[in-house]
Amino acid sequence: MVAPLDLLDLDTLLGDEERDIRAVVRRVADDKVRPHVAGWYEAGSVPVRELAREFGKLGLLGMHLTGYGCAGASAVSYGLACMELEAADSGIRSLVSVQGSLAMYAIWKYGSEEQKQRWLPGMAAGELIGCFGLTEPDHGSDPANMSTWARRDGDDWVLDGGKMWITNAPVADVAVIWARGEEGVFGFAVPTDTPGFAAREIKNKMSLRASSTGEITLDGVRLPESARLPEARGLKAPLSCLTEARFGIIWGSMGAARDCLRVALDYATTREQFGRPIGGFQLTQAKLADMSLELQKGFLLALHLGRLRDSAGALRPEQVSVGKLNNVREAIAIARTCRTILGGNGISGEYPVMRHANNLESVLTYEGTSEIHQLVIGQKLTGLNAFA
């Protein structure tokens, strides 16, 4: 039986260091996540701080950033790490992605030197947890009209409003909060013990259950000027953070798809019906062939974007949208098809397939819905804005 990504010998496209980093992350996922993740998902809770410290020891938190205890790894190496983490569970990759590509990146890119020194070394080590507050109860895809307001009061800022569906919020030490003011959109590094800041755990999720998700309330949160991210000017700043994080999703979604296909291949070659393995039937082989094809193409797309980013230093937003739109859409299709191969067992928590499928429903939506990415690509193709 050939492993899902061995069909085209895609490993030959990776360097020795990239393969070594992938092996290390796969090992920690196998040791620290896989034995427990089904239970975490069932319980709807995850030991964020314990995992963050383990990931911090390996340099996985903010690994693509430089300085302040960060590893300074390549984009492809970071992508491979995301792939291995999400092969275990999307919620675990989300923990690392929100910590490094949203909260840490915002401070690293737009913060003052004082803010960087205060927060980034502890976040890189996993001793401090960060979250990223942009989405609101009534403003998801339209952050330009966010309701959270920042007003001047003497030398201070006062924040009022709320944020919703914020990964890591219930356990965070610092929240990067985006708010509108009279002069535009501002970002703030908010210590979560500041009076007026509250984070409530969101329960009863049917997806990303092995992830800590919260609703943030900001009630007269008073902050000094030193809490404002001085280089963040306008909505472009938080949107650039989302572009940063979406890159990890392009890779991570392929990890979830690969894990589903791995399980389906094993099941198809061992499960017998009508006196033979179900993998010997034409319809099952057609499903496996089509899924393998899309997995190879998704990996090649992720790798191409990673190489572009490593050579050019950044990707254009529409390039990231192509990656997220295609790879998450194909990953969820693979998960659903693998579920059909497993039959009734496909809905059992004994197998990871339904857990991956449920998680990917969230990945499909967060950090830009499929519709938003279609419009980003459409605008680039036509030169016409269809958002309004």
UniProtKB/TrEMBL annotation:
Stated name of the protein: Acyl-CoA dehydrogenase family protein
Listed Gene3D superfamilies: Acyl-CoA dehydrogenase/oxidase, N-terminal domain (1.10.540.10), Butyryl-CoA Dehydrogenase, subunit A, domain 2 (2.40.110.10), Butyryl-CoA Dehydrogenase, subunit A, domain 3 (1.20.140.10)
PANTHER family membership: GLUTARYL-COA DEHYDROGENASE, MITOCHONDRIAL
Keywords, comma-separated and alphabetical: FAD, Flavoprotein, Oxidoreductase, Transit peptide
Cofactor(s) this protein cannot do without: FAD
Residues covered by the Acyl-CoA dehydrogenase/oxidase N-terminal domain: 16-127
Chain ranges of the Acyl-CoA oxidase/dehydrogenase middle domain: 131-221
Source species, domain of life: Bacteria
UniProt family annotation: Belongs to the acyl-CoA dehydrogenase family.
Pfam families, per the entry: Acyl-CoA_dh_1 (PF00441), Acyl-CoA_dh_M (PF02770), Acyl-CoA_dh_N (PF02771)
Matching InterPro entries: Acyl-CoA_Oxase/DH_mid-dom, Acyl-CoA_Oxase/DH_mid-dom_sf, AcylCo_DH-like_C, AcylCo_DH/oxidase_C, AcylCoA_DH/ox_N, AcylCoA_DH/ox_N_sf, AcylCoA_DH/oxidase_NM_dom_sf, Glutaryl-CoA_DH_mitochondrial
Domain Acyl-CoA dehydrogenase/oxidase C-terminal: 233-381
